[in-house]
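Hi C.,

You asked whether I'd gotten around to modeling the 448-residue construct. I have! Everything is below, sequence then structure, no commentary in between.
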Amino acid sequence: MEPRIQYAQTADGVSIAFWTLGEGTPFVHMSPVPLSHIEREWQMRELRRWYERLAEKRMLVRYDVRGFGLSERDVSDYSLEALAGDLEAVVDRLGLERFDLCTYFHLGPIAIAYAARHPERVSHLILWCAFARGSDYYQSPQTQALGSLRDKDWQVYTEALAHSFLGWSEGQRARRFAALWREAATQESMQAFVRASSQYDVTSHLPQVKSPTLVLHRRKLGFMDVDMARGLASQIPEARLALLEGESGAPYLGDTEAVLTAIDEFLGEGEEAREAGPPEAGAFRTVLFTDVEGSTALTQRLGDAQARQVLREHERMVREALKAHGGSEVKTLGDGFMTSFSSATRALESAIAMQRAFAEHNQSAAEPIRVRVGLNAGEPIAEEEDLYGTAVNLAARICGHAEAGQILASNVVQELAAGKGFVFADQGEASLKGFEKPVRLYEVRWAT
């Protein structure tokens, strides 16, 4: 059934067309200009399949930005603030307190600025072939060549843009998309939007983005170099970068399943965490910390971007081990994690899985990842999805006391896991900062 088109009103009085599809966690999908016509898109098989697939597990929200598609066309303000107001109008109209946000290309700066300003509302941020600064995008030779057509011949421009966007091997399909774009926009609205978006610059917002972020990019995309995606991911704290095969700028063409899998896995981690919820106050938990040895020196040696790639591998392997053994990610700490388990056995199994994954990675990696792991168990205080108290502080100190590649556990964890098949080596008592009495520590043997 075709979604019902509705309208929201912005603060400056512009009508924004939108529809919703499916049920569940809201997923707001921003479409690239000029490909934004929520009625015509649904009539195109490729886009309809894409939207239906996204809506299988969540409530999909699609809207046309001002000046395009079914939204109000008679507008002149395409500033970053104005387009952020379009997004705000739709989510407020639907009463969405918290939602996942997905954006493309030119609208990347809008989503980045909104996520930085409203971390309480954006659960996850997905950036497909996006950029933070308009001048970076518009300076590429291919984009400049297309720009000369835009101002001279509107039909030739849309045809060339469609082939560039979808892939030069596309024939009839590119012509169909070009026709859609001519219906979704006018030459004048596109010119006005380009003038405004070329001035977008949200690089100062990147370090302020607190939402978990996934940066997706196709390796052979002709008009946007992959280094732009790497740079974007390196400047957003804890962002993940997924480089996919193919040349199409459309996620719903080419290896679509790889794109959907990356999105589902990324959002699935958050959904599992939401279902599990924060630990109950006073609940007995095993707290596990990780810490990458020499991360500061790594950054100085490799530079921010390459060091970030190495640390991202650490994050990926830790999260995989957590997922496999029922652990909860409490928070990231720059070059480490604070995690929580309802079972000491699962926590130890996860710690061993992590160290084995790092050891396997290091056999062939140019930059090895050496990680300390520390565990303690107790009844931490749960507050605002975080954990506090002596049990947590001791776990952190134990992690700091460990050597690279080592798992150290408190005597509490060792006693809880007695008889479960783990191999512990008594390390004796250690004096840890902030604790009056020495603490008996055990090394968990994981290599065999």
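If it helps when you're writing up: The longest helix spans residues 256-276.

Thanks,
B.
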